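Task: encode each sequence below as structure tokens.

Item 1
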Amino acid sequence: MTREAAEAEFSRIIFPARLGKEGEEHHIEGTAEECAALAQRFGIVSLDRLCADVMVRPSGERGGVKLTGTFEADVVQSCVITQEPVVTSVKEAFNWLFRAEAKEDNGVSGEELVLSHVEEPEPLEGEELDVGECVAQYLSLALDPYPRLPDAQLPPELTENVGTGAEKEETSESPFSALQVLKNRR
């Protein structure tokens, strides 16, 4: 996790060393303040709801942790064309694998890793895992980078000079038109 717990907007700390063999289930929900802070972080109009059901289990590797779950969010973003609000609901599943310490060489080449579809675990830094920050990062990946209202169109004053390449050639001189004049003089 790259964000410090003190500055994470949606922090839910667990201690992997305290996990039993069965793991732990967590239902987490963002408060109004946490959702507002995440909306500001992600540059969106608002985050009206964020909740997640997360299962944290030992991964089988000594000190490793597997995080699986789903999250749901109600998001308001600005339309890239009209800047009007675009309201969406997001529901995604996620998996994240952590290991206790970084290994120098796991004996698997990069080609074998790609071919076998092995998930490469992230190093678990310290004795804590911020489950809330994991959910927040998955939410940021699930947001539409170009939200658009279904009927959004550019205003006519912005589109009147936009045309196809063929139209532009007919209405304006080509950069090679001066060379064509020289060629025609021969």
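Item 2
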Amino acid sequence: MSETRIDIIRHGEPEGGQRYRGHSVDDPLSKTGWQQMWDAVPEKPHWDHIITSPLSRCQKFAEALADTSGVGFTVEDNLKEIGFGTWEGRTPDDIKANEGDALQKFIQDPVNNRPEGAEPLNSFADRVWDVYQSVNKKHRGEHVLLVAHAGVIRAITSKILGMPLDDVYSKLKIEYAAIATTRVPDNNKPLMYLSAR
């Protein structure tokens, strides 16, 4: 049996406080964010390869982890976070103050209430899923780490569990440096695992 293990870790806290960061806001990790990431990974990492979003809040840590653990890493552009259009870089308070109930509508129905210029949620989920399937094919039988974003974890969760995107966005909270564990057995039907480190 050549089971493939694909873990996905969300980046740690970025500099700049709480705001909407899609793929055009490239804040680096804060000091706290770096510590969150190192605290989340095992002392002796067990991954065969690391694949990262190109955004610095992911890529800088992926480079450091690859260097300290002696494994290769790849930058994958399609692992970048979803685009938030006109909300990029803005705080929730700013949006509430200037756009009425737009934020509340977005939270309740993120598929149909995207900010102006935002990437469609279904298109985002499809591009992320294409990466996941490609990783499974290219790294069959290996244990791989994806360093990415909350949106990426939600998209993969939605596909594996067959959950509507609205549900994973409104009901699934993903903390900084959280790790989602998935496995793909020989039958190619991915599974999600909840386990202790």
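Check on item 2: Helices lie at 31-40, 56-69, 92-98, 102-108, 121-138, 150-161, 165-171. Strands lie at 4-10, 49-52, 72-75, 143-148, 179-184, 191-193.
End of task.
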